[in-house]
Each structure stands twice: as C-alpha cells, then as structure tokens.
Design a protein that fits this description.
This protein is 38% helix and 17% strand. It is an alpha/beta fold. It folds into 2 domains: 25-92, 2-Layer Sandwich (Alpha-Beta Plaits); 116-418, Aminopeptidase (3-Layer(aba) Sandwich). Bound molecules: N~2~-sulfamoyl-L-arginine and zinc ion. The site of N~2~-sulfamoyl-L-arginine has 15 residues, from helix 12 and strand 12.
C-alpha cells in the first residue's frame, strides 16, 4: 500500500514537475502478429495510453515494438499469451540503455573542438548548437543563406528556417520545403535535416544543380521544446510541451493540422502520445509551420517531412485508405528515392500511401501540405531505426544521415527535371 502511494506520488510529481524519467525496469517488446485477429488485438492494445507503441504498422509481416513500464508488464504479457501472440523482449531494462546512451552522447559532444565552424554528426546536437550552426552559415555564406524566425514555440524558443539559394538574386523561384523534428524523440530526423543543410550550403559546388531553379526552405526542428525535453528529462517524449491539464502535457503535432482533424488515428485523451490537441492548430509550432506552408503556396512543389522510424516513404492520404487523384506523381518521386537508397547502401524503404502502409492517422502535416497548401508532392520520410528504434548510437548518425541524403537528393533531382 505504502509502495503504491509512493509510486503514485512519484508519477504525479514527475508529471507535474517534469523531472527526469529513468525508465528503470521498462522493457521493450517486439511483436509480429501472425494473422488479422492478432493484428486487431495489437491495435486495441495501442489504445491504452500506458503502452508506448514505438511503431505499429498495419501491414502484416512488419513487426511492432512497444515499451512497457514494470507495473504493466505482467498484464501485458498475459494478454499476449492468452491470444497466443508471439513476442520477444528485445530490451530487459531500457533505463540502463537510456543512461548509457545519454553519457555516450554527452561524451562525444564535449569531445568536439569548439573552434569548428561546421556541424558535427558524431553526436546529437542540443537546440542551442543547431541555432548556432544556422547563425554561422548565415555569417559565412550571406549571399546564399538567409534565416527567418517564423514564430516561437510554447516555451519561447525561436522557430527558425534557413532559406538556401544559389545566390543569383532571382526571387520567387520554386521551393522545396523540408522539415524535421515535429516528434521530439526522433532525434535522427533533425540530424538528417542538418545534413541536407550542410550539403546544400557547404558542399554547394556538388549540389548547385538542386538550387538552379529552386530555393530550399528548411525548418530543422519543428518542436524544439519537445526536442530539448528529450535531452533533459524524458528521452521518449513525442509531443509538444504546452500543458493541457494539471497532469497531462503536450499535443502530437502530427495530429494537430486542420485537415480531417481528429477523424481517425488521433486520441482525444490529453495524456495520450497521439493527442490531437484541444483544437486544430492549438500549438504555436503547428501554426507557424502552417503559415509557412501557406506563404509558399504556388511556389512550393515538394514538401518533405522527416520522421523516424521504419524506412518508409509515405504520402497522402493519412486520413483515408483512398488515394488522391495524383498519387502516381508522388509515388514516382518517392520510388526514385527508395531506389537510390537501395542502390547505394542496400537499405530497403517501403513506398505507398501512409494509411495503406502504416495506419490511418488524420491531422498530419503531409496531408495538410498537399490538400490545403497545394504542394503537389508531399512525402513523409521515416528514417531507419537503430538501437531500440529512436536511438541510433552516435556512431551511426553519419551513416544514416548520409544514406538519407542519397534518397533526398535523388528525389530532388527527379523533381527538378519534372516540375
Ligand atoms: O504517426 C505519425 O505521425 C508518423 N509516424 S511516426 O512513427 N514518426 O509517428 C506517420 C505520419 C504519416 N502521415 C499521416 N498519417 N498523415
Ligand atoms: Zn514521427
């Protein structure tokens, strides 16, 4: 009884004060449903907000991964066993993993000489370093780089875009719009965006053909409050950081866009990881991204949003299994990206509509970009997993982001020659 009280107080205060989440004793399960009934059971389990499904693709044969706290493990395992669902515990104590990885990342970050002007891919960057890198580029390449603050996050951080041009001074060119990090814990996504920035700016000579008729507008961290929170407090935080109730904080930015908002695959429970928000665009971060998209309507031909994980290049719709009329145009671009990556590294990406490949989830930025901001090619790229999913080791960052760049570059080349 006393223990229960202690746990309740600890959980309450962690939620209220936002203290460090240790993940001590948390297990990670990998589950592959063998048939539709088992798949359905997993979908039902995913509605329990205590179970953190890292991934739950609805295509049979692709495995699900879920993190379960010590107090929920017994019931969870019993439920799987009673339906003869096969599972494997792939991490017996995620707490240990998080602590080790935090130390590793800090070690590699501190190792780096502060005199370097470029960004490093040997560790995940804090938001301040990301901003400092953007500032450095603006200072070093004033004719090709400009920065803009498009809004403030709930906690007051600057939401900053970098616009990259070839410096020829021609205005109102077509645009490729790229963002990352709407989901806080998907650290490899902002790293991927930084690599794209580095290639386009610092490796301009090799990539100038991608900037001939197009400017690139990049928002490398859509949700900086959440991103920082994963560094300082709770590694697996996904949402924004605006409080909803006394006990629950945050909205899933990728359920908060106003297109079929809340209709499917989005939770009304404020504690849930896929909470749709009090209203559409309740978050300053999604509002800022919306406004950016809308100012680029007509100019933007390609919207690419980086997430992790699962190796998917997916496109509208996320709210229905129907396909948009022009799906084949988007599919052709995505397929070029998948093929280029396959040829370069052997990594497989699955291409298709997000509902058909993953699951139905309305309120995503990709559907909004396509339907409302009228950006004809709109793609969500789910970068690969490593480690337990969202935590590729620092030593893997460069390999993953350079592979991602191969795909992005191939898609951009195809776009540039087609549109
Ligand atoms: O569920 C999501 O928001 C994305 N997957 S993630 O694992 N990174 O959370 C997929 C979004 C696909 N697009 C839409 N459903 N609109
Ligand atoms: Zn995501």
């Amino acid at each position: 009884m006393l223990f229960k009280l202690f746990v309740t107080v600890a959980l309450c205060c962690t939620a209220v004060l936002g203290e460090l989440t240790s993940y001590e004793g948390y297990k990670i399960y990998e589950i592959t449903a063998q048939n539709a009934a088992q798949q359905e059971l997993l979908q039902q389990l995913a509605e329990n907000e205590a179970y953190d499904f890292f991934t739950l693709p609805r295509m049979l044969g692709l495995s699900a991964r879920v993190m379960i706290s010590p107090e929920d493990q017994l019931a969870f395992e019993r439920t799987l066993q009673s339906s003869e669902v096969k599972y494997e515990v792939i991490n017996e104590n995620f707490g240990e993993t998080v602590a080790t990885e935090r130390m590793q990342n800090n070690f590699f970050r501190n190792l780096r000489s502060s005199s370097s002007r470029s960004v490093s891919f040997t560790a995940y960057q804090r938001y301040a370093s990301i901003e400092a890198y953007l500032d450095q580029l603006a200072e070093d390449y004033p004719s090709r780089v400009s920065l803009k603050t498009i809004g403030k996050s709930y906690e007051g951080r600057n939401l900053r875009t970098i616009t990259i041009t070839n410096g020829d001074g021609i205005v109102n060119k077509k645009v490729i719009l790229l963002d990352a990090g709407i989901h806080a814990r998907e650290w490899i996504a902002p790293a991927g965006a930084l690599y794209v920035i580095q290639q386009l700016v610092e490796n301009f000579a090799e990539n100038s053909h991608l900037l001939q008729d197009y400017d690139w507008v990049i928002l490398p961290v859509v949700n900086p409050d959440g991103y920082e929170y994963t560094h300082t407090n709770t590694r697996m935080w996904r949402k924004t950081r605006q409080p909803i109730t006394l006990l629950c904080t945050g909205t899933d930015g990728n359920r908060n866009f106003d297109y079929h908002w809340g209709e499917v695959g989005a939770s009304s429970l404020s504690c849930a990881d896929t909470y749709k928000g009090k209203t559409a665009f309740s978050e300053p971060e999604t509002k800022a991204l919306r406004d950016l998209m809308l100012t680029l309507t007509g100019r933007a031909k390609f919207y690419l949003t980086l997430h992790s994980y699962g190796n998917y290049l997916i496109y509208p719709w996320g709210w229905t299994s129907d396909l948009p009329d022009t799906w084949a145009d988007i599919d052709a671009i995505a397929q070029v990206g998948a093929d280029a990556i396959k040829a370069a590294t052997g990594t497989d990406y699955t291409v298709g509509s997000s509902t058909n490949v993953l699951y139905a989830a309305a309120g995503g930025s990709d559907d909004y970009a396509f339907a409302v901001a009228k950006i004809p090619i709109s793609i969500t790229m789910e970068l690969p997993s490593a480690g337990n999913g969202f935590d590729p080791a620092p030593a893997k960052i460069l390999e993953l982001v350079s592979e991602t760049w191969v795909g992005i570059k191939a898609m951009a080349e195809k776009l540039v020659e087609t549109y």
